[in-house]
């Protein structure tokens, strides 16, 4: 199939990167105010680390709803496509489509049943209704405009087949601890408030807290949500959580810097030296077992009424 010429300039625009503080960012994402994390090799490696952590958290399950073998899956904001590749490999008869605003992290040799589309999820979906057995959306809160969320969830509903499911996973990047030792004076708390306040009000980094309501309003039924304590390091006395925390240590170390670099130093003009000190202290605290720090991780599933 030949690609219409008129789409080419847009494709080029999506391909450009800009370098900032030694990291590569999508030029389109920064200029359009879409997404502010890097899209380079280091981020690909971090996303793989995060995928491995989530595999431990979810006991190697990729799909949570109780559904028969899916035939078509949409992965929104697929990133380096770790989830999409595994799901495509596990379901060779299923067509998987990954969408991302950035083509930079996509694998060169995906399974033959996995395709990609470069697009901004802040625009309304153009897919025909009732297209996918499962729509997956994971960790895209940094890139969905705050005002877009309700219609984003409605779009997910529209393109889900009757009887099909959505699966949404978001981490709320607000450092927490349940033992009372993490105070407002800790760098982790300052990191969280600076990061969350910088992203707001254009983005909604607290989107997970409203998700179930948006899903219900969109029409989803059998909605289930789960809040998981995702330890930043191996502080737990329980062996499973200790393994998860150990695996998550490196992911969190990287995430603290990658998520906040552009928002804090470019958007709020925090001096680089202050940023580096904040990150260094926050990393130490994330690894301090006495603080028992974690990020809340939210998981949602919902079914579109009807039969597949
Ligand atoms: C933190 S990564 C998560 C990637 C993947 N879902 C995962 O869990 O490993 C966020 C991804 O969402 C993409 N993204 C963010 N906002 C987007 C938008 N508005 N449209 C399309 N992709 C978006 C980013 O380019 C990035 O690849």
What is the terminal separation in angstroms? 30 Å
Please bin the fraction of helical residues: 25-40%
- Give the class from helix and strand content and strand pairing: alpha/beta
Can you tell me the residue ranges where pLDDT is under 50 for at least 5 consecutive residues? 1-10
The hetero compounds bound to this protein are:
S-adenosylmethionine
InterPro entries: Methyltransf_25 (IPR041698), SAM-dependent_MTases_sf (IPR029063)
Family: Belongs to the methyltransferase superfamily. LaeA methyltransferase family.
Protein name: Methyltransferase domain-containing protein
Domain Methyltransferase: 73-164
How is this structure best described in words?
With 308 residues, the chain is α/β, with parallel strands linked by helices. 37% of the residues lie in helices and 21% in strands. It has helices at 8-15, 27-31, 41-57, 82-90, 149-159, 187-199, 211-218, 239-267, 272-286; strands spanning 17-20, 23-26, 72-76, 95-100, 114-118, 132-138, 160-171, 221-231, 294-303. Strands 5-4-3-6-7-9-8 form a seven-stranded mixed beta sheet, with helices on both faces. Strands 1-2 form a two-stranded antiparallel ribbon. Helix 5 (149-159) links the parallel strand 6 (132-138) and strand 7. It starts with 7 loop residues before the first helix and ends in a 5-residue tail after the last strand. Bound molecules: S-adenosylmethionine. This is Methyltransferase domain-containing protein. One of its GO terms (molecular function) is methyltransferase activity.
């Amino acid at each position: 199939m030949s690609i219409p010429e008129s789409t080419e300039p847009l494709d080029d625009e999506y391909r450009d990167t800009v370098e900032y503080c030694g990291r590569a960012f999508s030029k389109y994402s920064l200029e359009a105010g879409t997404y502010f994390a890097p899209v380079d090799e280091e981020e690909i490696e971090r996303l793989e680390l995060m995928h491995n952590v989530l595999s431990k958290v979810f006991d190697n399950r990729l799909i949570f709803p109780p559904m028969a073998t899916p035939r078509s899956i949409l992965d929104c904001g697929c990133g380096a496509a770790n989830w999409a590749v595994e799901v495509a490999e596990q379901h060779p008869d299923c067509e998987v489509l990954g969408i991302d605003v950035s083509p930079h992290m996509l694998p060169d040799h995906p399974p033959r049943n996995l395709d990609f589309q470069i697009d901004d999820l802040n625009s309304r979906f153009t897919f025909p209704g009732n297209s996918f057995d499962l729509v997956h959306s994971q960790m895209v809160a940094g890139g969905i405009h705050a005002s877009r969320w309700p219609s984003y969830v409605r779009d997910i509903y529209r393109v889900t087949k009757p009887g099909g499911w959505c699966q949404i996973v978001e981490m709320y990047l607000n450092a927490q601890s349940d033992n009372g030792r993490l105070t407002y004076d800790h760098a982790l708390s300052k990191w969280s408030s600076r990061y969350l306040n910088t992203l707001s009000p254009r983005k909604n980094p607290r989107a997970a807290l409203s998700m179930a309501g948006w899903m219900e309003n969109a029409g989803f039924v059998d909605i289930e949500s789960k809040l998981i304590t995702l330890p930043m390091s191996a502080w737990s006395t329980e062996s499973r959580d200790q393994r998860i925390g150990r695996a998550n240590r490196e992911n969190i170390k990287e995430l603290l810097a990658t998520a906040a670099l552009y928002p804090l130093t470019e958007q709020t003009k925090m001096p680089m030296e202050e940023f580096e000190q904040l990150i260094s202290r926050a990393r130490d605290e994330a690894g301090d077992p006495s603080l028992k720090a974690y990020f809340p991780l939210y998981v949602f599933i919902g079914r579109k009424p009807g039969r597949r």
